Amino acid sequence: MPAANDFSFSSAKTLALQIRRRRIGALEALDHFIARIERLDRSINAVVVRDFARARKRARALDRSRGPAGPLHGVPMTVKESFDVAGLATTWGLAAMRDNVVSSNALAVERLQAAGAVVFGKTNVPRLLLDWQSFNVNYGVTNNPWDCTRTPGGSSGGSSAALAAGLTGLDIGSDIGGSIRVPAHFCGLFGHKPTWGLCPPRGHSLLGTVVPTDISAIGPLARSAEDLTLALDAIAGPDAADTSLRYVLPPPRTASLKGLRVAVWAEEPATTTDHEISAKLSELARALQREGAKVGLRARPAFDPKEAYQLFLRLLAAAVGTRLGPEQLAAARARAAASAPDDDSADAVLDRNYDLSHGDWIALNERRAVLRRTWQAFFNDWDVVLCPAFGTAALPHELDVRSAGRRITIGGVELHYNDLLFWPGIAGGFYLPATTAPLGFTRTGLPLGVQIVGPLYGDRTTIAVARQLERRWLAFTAPANLG
Questions:
Q1: Which string of b and e fits 443-476 if b means at least 16 CB within 10 Å?
Q2: Fold identical between 12-235 and 261-472?
Q3: Between the chain's N and C termini, which has fewer beta carbons within 10 Å?
Q4: pLDDT tens digits for range 269-319
């Protein structure tokens, strides 16, 4: 049993409340997490950029302040390495960017600090944020606290590992192909990919671009659903450099599970999903029915899921193609030319579309707009969709080949590694908000997550459902091997 004063796995909301009431100090909380990092992080390697001295100075100032700085008053937190923090390097895992020390904070970091958070470090990522394995030449490999032979996910893998290991109070990541949702699933956490455009990403770009990347969103990872709301409220809203408009998100569609209209999409012929995940989702569906929810086991949006997935892949390639250098693009063109015309694997589709023409992108975006309206029509009848966050539990480390060369076997079926993009893409590719919440565990004890998808700007609904599941189904559970 942890000691009475051990708040390693407390929620950020609880930490902020305890600090505001002066039951613990901001510096005391910060030093607690620093001590855990120094004791445990050598084997996990999650918090790879450390800014302890400046964080201690800020924590002391908060302890001397007369009133709370905001809803995250004194909460020690980390951010994904890809976010700019003034005075620290932002590298995205690239050796050439090792000395890229930035002079200003990302807007999200500014907003979190304005809400009272104490940012004390940055968490590990894969190279260019393009992998579910979080390793790079600058900072090495991050391990999953549940099983160090496995990845905590990516690209926000350091974020999820730090939270699951009790090394930080809160974290924010980014997500274009599941990079928040998959790490949350792999580590038994809560994660929220907001509606595209809701949270401005200024300061989350190696090139200093101000135009948001298509599909990509920034959002929080946490040990409780309420923390997702706290962080989202801090970082959401337009960039004042662009407009003086303000967003007012709709309230949650329901305050309880009773009466919730939930479609359960436990498996799909267009992809392969581990039976343990589908079975656990079916078990959850039965539990929701007992709670009084209206559950649809066959309700689906009126489009071909495979077509929607292929559309997502093409748009994803166009979005991330801007991160690739000339040599990488040339290699992709060569692979595309050598692939069979009917090869519809994720690897082949991505290779064909990294340098998509503007005209082709316009046509794809038009088709996406049609399917987005189909999704919205679906949400006239259903409040949320529950589906897998990913097709399998945490993957073993596989670091010696690029992701396109990897294979994974699920239920006896061998897949291209990147074909696991289906479940992240079916929501993210259409700009929808999606929250990951703990679903259960595999027979071998690895965490599983459920993806809660809602209508455009239905962020408060998906998080509210996650909160209800946290209360009535499963809350965050700390790995047993960590003190």
A1: eeebbbbbbbbbbbbbbbbbbbbbbbbbeebbbb
A2: yes
A3: N
A4: 999 999 999 999 999 999 999 999 999 999 999 999 999 999 999 999 999
Residue boundaries of the structural domains of the chain: 12-235, 261-472
Q: Hey, what are 396's tokens?
A: 């073993």
Q: Which residues are catalytic?
A: 80, 155, 179
Q: For the chain, what percent of residues have pLDDT higher than 70? A: 99
Tell me if the pTM is above 0.85.
Answer: yes
H-helix or E-strand containing 21? Answer: none
Residue 1 pLDDT exceeds 50: no
CATH of 261-472, one of 3.30.413.10, 3.90.1300.10, 3.20.20.70, 3.40.50.300: 3.90.1300.10
Sign of torsion over alpha carbons 51, 52, 58, 59: positive
Span 62-92, pLDDT tens digits: 999 999 999 999 999 999 999 999 999 999 9
Q: What is the topology classification, in CATH, of domain 12-235?
A: Amidase signature (AS) enzymes (3.90.1300)
Strand order in the sheet with 47-50: 47-50, 118-123, 76-80
